[in-house]
Amino acid sequence: MGVTLLGNTATRYPDQYAPEVLETFVNKHPGREYLVSFLCPEFTSLCPKTGQPDFAKILINYIPRERMVESKSLKLYLFSFRNHGDFHEDCVNIILNDLWELMDPRYIEVKGIFTPRGGIAIHPFANRGDAEHQKMVEERLMAAFPDGF
Q1: 47 carries an active-site annotation
Q2: Residue extents of the structural domains in the chain
Q3: What does the alpha-carbon distance between residue 80 and residue 103 come to, in Å, rounded to a whole number?
Q4: HSE-CB for 2 with a 13 A CA cutoff
Q5: Most buried residue, 109, 118, 133, 146, by most Cβ within 10 Å?
């Protein structure tokens, strides 16, 4: 895959869920384990039952292998959820699955910090790792459990 969106002044913002906009580039340090973090503070999606907007911060952390996600394509991808109707938990898992398939990272986690609606805050967390990172998968999942908010 090549990077075509970065620097492109004719960017089109998808108005429907669009995993096809995701692009990758080659990791220049594949022999080193390091963390890449993204924070999208303006994520929006729609409740699949009421059609009302849901707002969240989406946090993505991953340890790359050979390919890395290009940030502008990730931004466009996350913005494509704006008119997408899915529950909070589904959005987080869809993002995780799409990025896993795109990059084949060593480890990835996605957390959604959704703005409370109806008096309830929902913070779904999903993660996945390769065979060498299964201990990390378990440890990070257990660490994600809140101690009372």
Answers
A1: yes
A2: 32-140
A3: 19
A4: 3
A5: 109
